[in-house]
Write a structure and sequence with these properties.
- This protein has 298 residues and is of the alpha+beta class.
- It has a single domain, classed as Phosphatase 2c, domain 1, CATH 3.60.40.10.
- Helix content is 29%, strand content 28%.
- A hairpin with a 2-residue loop joins strand 2 and strand 3.
- 49% of the residues are buried.
Length: 298
Amino acid sequence: MAAGAPDGQPEEAPDIRHGVTLSFGFGSDRGLRRELNEDAFLAADPIFAVADGMGGHEAGEVASRECISVLSQQAVLAAGSRSATAVDLQQALRQADARIREISHARAGTTVTGVAVVEERGVPYWLVFNVGDSRTYRLSQGSFGQVSVDHSEVQELVDGGFITPAEALVHPRRHVVTRALGTGTDTEADYWLIPVEDGDRILVCSDGLTGEVSDEGIHRALSTLEHPQDVVDSLIQAALRSGGRDNVTVVVVDAARVDGTGPETLTQPSAPAEEDTLPRLPEEAPGANSVPPEENHA
C-alpha cells in the first residue's frame, strides 16, 4: 500500500486476485515554484486516488491528506473482495468532507479523483469518481480519453460553447474549481462504471500534470512506455521541464485479465451496479452553488 506521502519513494507493485492482475506505479513532486506539496495520493488495490489540496498556509496539505486517509480506510475494508460500491465511496467522501471542514473550519478544501476496482458477479469494473479538476484518463484497446469531467469555471464555459478547449488551456480562471471537498456548498462526486478490458491503463493525476503536459504528450507516454512506474517518472519529469509551476502527482494502473473473465462478460454491466454510475445531472449542481473562487485555486 502507498498512501498519502507526497514525494514518497515510488515503486511498482503487482496485485493478482479475483480475475484481474493489477500493476501500478506512483510518484509526487513539489514542483519548481511551490514551497509545499499539497497533493496526496493513494495506491492500494482496490482504490487509486489523487487529492490536490487548496487553501494555502498548509491548510491544503491537511485537506488532501485527510481525504486520502479516509479513502485508505475504505481501501482496507474493501481489500481482498474488491467489494466497494459507489455508495461506499460516496459515504467515504462525505466523511472526508465533514472532517476537513471540522479541522480547517471550512478554510481549506481538496479535489479528488481516481478509480476503485469493483467486481459484480466476478466481473471486474473501473468505478471512476471525481470532485474538482484533478483528472482520470483511460487508455483501452488503443483508445485514449479523459473519463472524469472537470468541475471548473472553464469547463462550464467550454460546455456552454463560450470558449474552445484550446482557449480553456490559457484562460485566466482555468484553476478555479466549482466543486471541492471541505469548502463551498457543492461537494458531491460524479461516478462512472466501466468494464475492465485486458490491457487497460488508467492514469490518475493532479492538475500540476495537465497544466504542463498536453493530452497528446500524456497519450504518448501512456502508449509507448511499458512499465507503469516508467510512465509516472516520465510524466513528472515532463511537467518539471515545462515549468513545474504546481505540485504534480501521478498514479498509473495497468490491468490484465486472468482466470476466466472472457471478453463477452467484460462488456455486460449488471443492472444494479449501473444505477450508481451516472454523473449527477447539471440541475443538481447549479452554478449558484459554486465554491467561492478565491478559496479554490487548485
